[in-house]
């Protein structure tokens, strides 16, 4: 290439998706940028394996993270992304990439009526999927707490919203805090679509397909993102968790 470009080694929560979304937004602005003669062109790594290979090509151990910095920029000829989650201490990014999947926590709420008849089977399924239960409690949800668990789509329809809130506050729910590598996505994948009929059509072994009755009585609530999981842990387990301390929980003060 005749001109240098900027190479960025980045890291953050859900870094691949976050950067892809940012680049998509920038792409939508390219027409305006091209009018000024400054067309933005980008290339990003799509997997951790490609990230590691590209990072070793462009950077050395000494290039990476200082105690107060978590990104490094270089003016060379390709753009790449490196990332998984934020850390507050000094650490080689190569070491971090080679360490494997990070242990995370997520929250599973088994809705009223679903857990009382099926708890043993659900716990067995969690064990088979290598989840570790690090928090458990019975809760009677207050209306404001139930409202906070519902999606923006549900809140758009007053009748649907009332049906969900009425059901969630109708009896005792069981809340579990679960720990394993990639816990948030793994749990969401196991639960399946919120509509049990869609879950049944997709895969009859999905949990909502097995235990759900309707879009309201669909058996489970699961934290949909890492940020929401942290919020849910602080909400339901303010006293703390019965797991060994790990870096992620220390950073989030859970």
TrEMBL record:
UniProt KW keywords: Kinase, Transferase
The answer, when asked if Ion transport is one of the entry's keywords, is no
Q: Which residues form the Nucleoside diphosphate kinase-like domain?
A: 103-243
- Give this protein's Gene Ontology molecular function annotations: kinase activity
PROSITE patterns named among the record's database cross-references:
NDPK_LIKE (PS51374)
Against Pfam families, the record matches this protein to: NDK
Q: Which InterPro entries match?
A: NDK-like_dom, NDK-like_dom_sf, TXND_domain-containing
Q: Does the keyword Magnesium apply?
A: no
Q: Which family does it belong to?
A: Belongs to the NDK family.
What protein is this chain from? NDK7 kinase
**Native organism:** Rynchops niger (Black skimmer)
Q: According to the entry, what is the taxonomic lineage of the organism?
A: Eukaryota, Metazoa, Chordata, Craniata, Vertebrata
In the UniProt record, the gene name given for this protein reads: Nme7_0
């Amino acid at each position: 290439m005749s001109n240098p470009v900027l190479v960025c080694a980045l890291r953050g929560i859900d870094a691949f998706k976050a950067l892809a979304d940012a680049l998509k937004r920038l792409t939508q602005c390219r027409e305006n940028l091209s009018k000024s003669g400054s067309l933005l062109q980008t290339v990003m790594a799509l997997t951790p394996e490609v990230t590691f290979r590209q990072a070793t090509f462009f950077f050395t151990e000494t290039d990476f993270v200082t105690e107060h910095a978590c990104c490094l920029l270089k003016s060379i000829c390709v753009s790449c992304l490196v990332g998984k989650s934020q850390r507050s201490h000094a650490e080689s990014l190569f070491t971090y990439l080679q360490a494997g999947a990070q242990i995370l926590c997520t929250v599973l709420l088994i809705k009223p009526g679903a857990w009382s008849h099926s708890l043993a089977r659900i716990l067995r399924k969690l064990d088979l999927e290598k989840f570790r239960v690090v928090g458990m409690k019975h809760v009677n949800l207050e209306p404001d707490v139930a409202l906070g668990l519902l999606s923006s789509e549900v809140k758009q329809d007053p009748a649907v919203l009332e049906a969900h809130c009425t059901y969630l506050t109708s009896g005792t729910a069981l809340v579990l805090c679960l720990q394993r590598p990639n816990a948030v996505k793994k749990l969401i994948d196991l639960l399946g679509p919120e509509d049990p009929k869609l879950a049944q059509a997709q895969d009859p072994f999905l949990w909502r397909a097995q235990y759900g009755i309707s879009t309201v009585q669909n058996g489970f609530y699961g934290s949909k993102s890492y940020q929401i999981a942290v919020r849910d842990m602080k909400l339901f387990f303010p006293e703390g968790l019965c797991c060994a301390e790990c870096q992620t929980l220390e950073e989030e003060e859970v």
